[in-house]
Amino acid sequence: MFAARKLHAAAAALLALAAPAAAQVDGGDDDRLLALTRVEELQKEVRELTNRVETLEYELGRERKRRDELYRGMQARIDELEGRLGAMAAGDGVGESPDDGGGAENDAAAAGESENGDVEVEGGDAEAAIDAPESQTADPAEVQARYDEAFEFLKRSHYSRAVTAFRDFLGDYPDTELSDDAAYWIAEAHYVTRSFADALQGFQLMRRRYPASVRVPDATLKVGYIQYEIGAYTDARATFTSITTDYPGSRVAISAKTRLQKMDRQGL
To answer: Residue 66's domain spans which residues?
Structure first.
């Protein structure tokens, strides 16, 4: 998130310089309107750039997590196989006499037969039965593919298509490890396009539905930003203050404190 913080800082400095300049432009209402329009364009560009940085950083983090999970899965598999090989080696001499190599009883056991003549499941078949997902469990690969498809629209700034794709994803997979992220990005797409009513509803819904998500602090910060944008200054101040209390020392707490200081300067 270091790049995002640098972008926020640079954008804040730029807009801080641009806004007073826009207010002091000489030459009449037309010039002031032109300057203010340019400030709004800069704000929009900042939002879009910030969104792109966040999506790229998120994607990088997701790839790192996927790599780590793959490594852990492979290591667990190796450990399991080594344990099985050790157990097989330890059991080679069990039930065998010195002169007959185990006799007919061991031959039947090797063939996978129980005492009553039934064939028991062994080896790969048992392993497949353990690893097979339950019928009601979503295929992780399919879930990831659907999520990546929606996320690709967001990366390309195709926000309306991203919203539709993420909504379809949540309709099919409402409770996976990616569901909270999908809900967050729906709200974020609305925020970037200044659809503040939809964005506010989306972030608040995401917080209620996935209260344990790591995305909750960021969603709460965006709620405060939207409240500020729509002029709900009392609500915005309450939201920013709660962030500084709930997440002290965090990135979102620093951003919330910065916005509170701005509101103090503006007398809001």
So the answer is: 1-90
